[in-house]
Amino acid sequence: LTFEEAQRELEQIVQRLESGEAPLDEALKLWERGEELHRFCKERLDAAEGKIEELAGRARTAKP
Amino acid sequence: VKVEAIDYGDRKVYSVGAFNRGVALWLSRLPTVWVEGEVTELRRQARWASVFFTLKDPHDGSCLGVSMPRGQFDGLRLELADGDRVHVYGRPELFSARGEFRLRALSLERFGLGEHLAALERLKRKLADEGLFAAERKRPLPLLPERIGLVTGNDAAAKRDVLTAITTRFPPANVLVAETYVQGPRAAGAVVEALRALCREGVDVVVVARGGGSFEDLLPFSEERLVRAISDCPVPVVSAVGHEQDTPLCDLAADVRASTPSVAGRLVVPDLAQLLERLDRSRSGLERGARRSLERERHRLERTHERLGRAPRLLVERNRARLEQFAGRLRALSPRATLERGYAIVRSGEEIVRSGRAVETGERIDVELAEGGFGARVEKTR
Predict the structure, then answer these.
(1) Interface ipTM
(2) Would you write out chain A's pLDDT as a tens digit for each of its 64 residues?
(3) Which of B291, B307, B319 sits opposite A24 (nearest CB)?
(4) Of B326, B373, B323, which Cα lies nearest the Cα of B346?
(5) Are B203 and B148 in contact (CB under 8 A)?
(6) Distance from CA of B294 to the nearest CA of A (A)
(7) pTM
(8) Which residues in chain A touch residue B323, judged by CB atoms under 8 angstroms apart?
């Protein structure tokens, strides 16, 4: 699963929930799935930020 | 004519006359050619059959005696003066009586500045017609040349100017210098050879630099073979020959024309400091861009997340509200609620009494109220 795929699915879930068409049981399942996707996306963003900091730090020390 | 030697034992010896005749015979087999030079020491006398002058090479001072039949010379009405540039058509000859070598002129043309310019103009037109100067032939200079070739005179200020300009802008530049003649009759060939040598060594751009000079000093840079060599050069050529107002043909054939050697130097290398600064800017832009896109994604995820929790909660609330509503209606339908409003249930035995005709006077009945109840006896039916 890529970040974009997870994000797309998460947004589809939110749209489905906001439409109010989902029965309660389904809504709860969707919510659970949504939270899972949110956690996944957040982890990816945290990892990306870590990478940015690492690269920025490396570039600063490499500067003449 | 036969040239006979006298044998002294095993030594062959020629008389002076025979030797001169022999050399003259050999010289007479050489072809008739055009020779260019300046007229000096013109000697003409009415009683002489020929006119004599010395042709001098203005570049290196080489001299050549020339003779021309007087009638022919006079017929040309050239009124030559010392220093006039001429083209002489003739063949080499040895004047046997004096052992003097000279050029026997068959024809003579003045070749001054005007003629030079006209010849140059003809050549320019011819090469232009061939497309040698066409704009679409011009190649871009490499942004960061690995090795730069420089064709220049050996102690020329031009060389110093180009090198200074290059190393000021781009200190780590790698320049391969080919020193050569940049003036005189050997210059064109030497420059062509230097160009080829540099290309063989492997350079990715060539600068041809020569400082200012007289019109004639710069003439080699308009010679056809040099102009062709520049246009045929496998790598781009920057020409910086003469001053701004001079336009030798090599300038037209070059990929880029520089007004001075310093300008040429600045053209072939990038400004290192500027390059590093730009690189640095790009790098920080890169970092900024990455951070910005990260922030954007974070924001989007946060908003989506907020919406995610809100919708099901709302749904639960809505369901709860609906449930409450139904519970209320359910409660309203239960008999207890009716009793609360002051109604009573009357029973006769196990049967609920719904009509006065269902009981008889004096019969025992049970009355149930919202709270408790009591037994009773029917007094009268209606």
Answers:
(1) 0.80
(2) 898 899 899 889 988 888 878 888 888 888 899 899 999 988 988 888 888 888 878 877 775 5
(3) B319
(4) B373
(5) yes
(6) 7
(7) 0.54
(8) none
